[in-house]
Amino acid sequence: MKANSTVLTGCPFCGTGCALNVECSENGYKVKGDKTNPSTQGDLCFKPIQMAKALDAHRLTSPLYRKDKTKPFEEISWEEAITLIAQNISDLPREELYFYLSGQLLTEESYLFTKLIKGHLGINNVDANSRLCMATAVVAHKMAFGSDGPVGNYSDIDDADAIVISGSNPAWAHPVIFRRIMARKKAHPETKIIVIDPIYTETAEKSDLWIGLCSGSDTTLYNALLAEIYRRGRCDTAFIDRATEGFEDVINTVLDVPFAQSITSCGLLIEDAEVLIELFASQKKILGLWCQGLNQAVDGVMRNLGFINLFLATGRINALKGSPLSLTGQPNAMGGREVGYLSNGLPGYRDVRNLQDRTVCEDHWNLPKNTIFPMPGITITDAIDAIVNNEIKFLWVACTNPLLTLPDFNKTQRALKNSNLFLVVQDCVLSETASLANLVLPTLSWGEKEGSMTNSERFIKRVRPFKSGPDEAKSDSVIICNVAQKLGFKGFDYSDSKAIFNEYKELTKTRLCDQSTQEYESLSYQWGGKYLYADEYFATPTGKAQFHPIISSFPSPDTNTFVLITGRTKKQWHTMTRTQHVPELLRAEEHPYLLMNSEEGAKMGIQEGDIAVISNHLGDLELPVRFGKLAPRHLFAPFGYGKTPINTLVPAISDPFSFQSALKSARVTVRIKNKMAAILLMH
Ligand SMILES: Nc1nc2c(c(=O)[nH]1)N[C@H]1C(S)=C(S)[C@@H](COP(=O)(O)OP(=O)(O)OC[C@H]3O[C@@H](n4cnc5c(=O)[nH]c(N)nc54)[C@H](O)[C@@H]3O)O[C@H]1N2
Ligand SMILES: Nc1nc2c(c(=O)[nH]1)N[C@H]1C(S)=C(S)[C@@H](COP(=O)(O)OP(=O)(O)OC[C@H]3O[C@@H](n4cnc5c(=O)[nH]c(N)nc54)[C@H](O)[C@@H]3O)O[C@H]1N2
Ligand code: SF4
Ligand SMILES: [Mo]
C-alpha cells in the first residue's frame, strides 16, 4: 500500500467508466469520484467503494497445474507454467488453438494478446466475451455508420427533452448514467423518460412511461413508429437527402403493415406508442440508450438498426436534436473493440479481411507479409462445439468465466472438461472455469496494475495501481510477454505499459478511434469528440449513413411456455468472483430467484418463496419465486450464480450477422416443485 497517497484511477466494473480517486491510508482505501474528469464528473456508485474492502479475498497465489483434470492441482513455478503453455502452443497445429479474452482486460493487455495471436501466431481463433455483449452493436454501428463507435455522449443527458431507454436497465447496470438521468429529471421535470422493456424494472419504475412490450417485438415496434412518423410527414427529409442512403428501401418495407395491428401484436397500447411518435415527430432533443435487451437476440442487429433508423429518419445525430448512444457493458469492452480483439478485428478498428489493414499491422509488428490470416476465426460458441468434437485442443481463457456465462451450460462444461483439451485460465481468483483447468495463472487485479480503458462515450482514461497484489501474481501483460518470448517471438520486451500504449496508439493514427496524439501519463481524452459524426460525414465509403430495412421476425405467441429473460443483479458483478466477498454487495443477492407476475403465479398456485422448477429441452433448474411486474408470460432470472447456472436453460443460438448469443429469450415451462399437476396453460 502507498500510505497516505491519492491515486487517480478508473472503476473496474461497468462501461460507464467512472474516474476515481483512491485515498490510501493505514485504515485502508477510500474510493471517491474524480471531479476533474470531464466524462463522469466525480460521480460513482457503491460497487467500487465497497469492493476496495475485499481486494485481497480468496486470491490465487501461485500457478497451479495438473496434467489430468480429474486430479488435484499442484503448485508449480512460473518458469514451468510458461514453458507448459509455450510447449502446448508449439506442439499443436495452429488451427487447434483458441484464445478467449475479456472486455475487463486493459487496452494494453488486449493489444498484446492481439499482436501475439493474430500477428505472431498468424491465427484468428480468438474471441472475447464481447461476443456475448457488444458484438451486435459493433455490427449495427458498422452497417449504419460505416465503423464501430457509439455516436453520442453522456452530456446529452443534461439537456435532453426526452430519454428513450430500450432494453437497458441503467438503474442497476449503469448507475451513474441513471443518476445523471434522474438529476436531469429533477431539475427539469418536463423531461420525458420512456422505458421500452418487457420487465417493469427499477428504471421503468422511475420513468414517465413504461412500454412493456413482448420480448422480441422491438423490430415490429420500431418499424411501426417509423412508418407512422413518415405518414405524418415528420421525417427530416433534408437530413435524409443530404446525409443518408437507403431510406426509400426502408420506408417501402414498413408502410404496408397497419399501425394498430403492429402495436397490438407487440402487446402494447396505441396511446403509449403515440407518445413515442409525438416525441420523434417533434423538434425535441432525444437521447436513445440501449444495451443487452437489443443486443442479445437472434435478431439483435435488426433491433439495433431499427432503433437507429428512428434517429436517422428524424435527423437526430447531434447536439441539437440528440443521438443514439449504445451503452457498453464492461469497463473496457470499448478498448478491446478498438484493439480488434473479436475474431475478425485488428487494431484501430481494422479487419483481418482487408489486405491494407493486414499490411499496416504486419509492418508495424515487423512481420513478413501475409502473416495475418485473411479470414475471421471462429467465434467462441463455435469453438465450444469444436472442443466437444476434439477439433480444438488448447484453450487459453483470460479475465472471463465462460463456464457460467456462455449459453448452454452443460455443453460448455462438457467442452471444458474434455480430457483432450489443455485448458489454461488466467484469473485473480479460482473461478468456476479455473477450477476445471489444467493450468491456472494467478494475476494481479484492479488496483494492482496499470494501463488504459475506454468508456461507453469513447472517453479514455488511465488506471493506476494503489496496492500490491500477492507476491506470485503477475500482470496479464507480463504473462503474455513471457509466453511470447518463450515462443521465440521478438517485440515483447516492453519496459512498461506506457511503451505498449505508445506502440498501439500509432495503429490508431488517422483511424476513427485516433488517439495517436495522446500522452500516456495524462490520458484523459474522448476520441472522435462529443459527436462522432457532427459534420454529417459518416465512415461509409460514400460518407453517407445507411438505412437498412428491418426484417421483423417477431416469434409467434406460444401459450405453452414462458419467455425466460436473463440479466443482472443490482449489486453483484456477473459471476460474482470478487463481489461475493463483500457483504454489503452480497446482501439480498445471496440467492438467485425467478421473477414472475403475481397473477400468473396465483393462477398456477405458486406463492412467493415457493421453489419453481423451470425446464426446457436443455435441462431443469430450481429457483425460489419472487413476484414482480412483467409483460404477460415473461419470467426473469439473474445469471452468474454458480450453483444454479441459469445458462443451463439458455440455448446456443445467435444472431446471423453478429453471432452474438440470444441470451434473453429461452423458452421454458414452470411448475412448483413436488406438485405433479403443474398448471401451465393460462389465458
Ligand atoms: N450491477 C451490475 N452492473 C452491470 C453488470 C453486472 O454484472 N452487474 N454488467 C455490465 C455488463 S457487462 C453489461 S453488458 C451491462 C448490461 O446492462 P443491461 O443491458 O441494462 O442489463 P440486462 O439485465 O442484461 O438487460 C437489460 C434489460 O433488457 C431487457 N430486455 C430483455 N428482452 C428484451 C426485449 O426483447 N426487448 C427490449 N426492449 N428489452 C428487453 C431486460 O428485461 C432487462 O431489463 O451491465 C453492466 N453493468
Ligand atoms: N444468461 C446470460 N448470460 C450472460 C449474459 C446475460 O445477460 N445472460 N450477459 C453476457 C455478458 S453481456 C457478459 S459481458 C458476460 C460476462 O461474463 P464473464 O466475463 O465470463 O463474467 P465475469 O464474472 O465478469 O468474469 C470475469 C473473470 O475475470 C476475473 N478477473 C478479474 N480481474 C481480472 C484481471 O485483472 N485479470 C484477469 N486475468 N482476470 C481477472 C474474475 O475473477 C472473473 O473470473 O456474460 C454474458 N453471459
Ligand atoms: S457506475 Fe459503473 S463505472 Fe461508475 S462507479 Fe458504478 S460500476 Fe463503476
Ligand atoms: Mo456485457
Detail the topology: elements first, then pairings.
Layout: E1 5-10, E2 19-25, E3 28-33, H1 46-51, E4 64-65, E5 74-75, H2 78-91, E6 97-101, H3 107-120, E7 126-128, H4 135-145, E8 162-166, H5 170-173, H6 175-187, E9 192-196, H7 202-205, E10 209-211, H8 218-231, H9 237-243, E11 244-245, H10 247-254, H11 259-265, H12 270-281, E12 286-290, H13 292-295, H14 300-313, E13 322-326, H15 333-339, E14 345-346, E15 350-351, H16 355-364, H17 380-388, E16 394-398, H18 402-405, H19 409-417, E17 422-427, E18 439-442, E19 451-454, E20 459-463, H20 476-486, H21 497-506, E21 524-526, E22 545-546, E23 562-567, H22 583-586, E24 594-597, H23 598-603, E25 611-616, E26 619-628, E27 634-638, E28 666-672
Parallel strand pairs: 6-7, 6-16, 8-9, 8-12, 9-10, 11-22, 12-13, 16-17, 17-18, 23-27, 24-26
Antiparallel strand pairs: 1-2, 2-3, 4-5, 4-18, 14-15, 19-20, 20-21, 23-28, 25-26, 25-28
Helix pairs in contact: 2-20, 3-15, 3-20, 3-21, 4-14, 8-11, 8-12, 8-14, 17-19
The chain binds ligand MGD (2 copies), iron/sulfur cluster (SF4) and molybdenum atom.
One ligand MGD binds next to helix 18, strand 17 and strand 23.
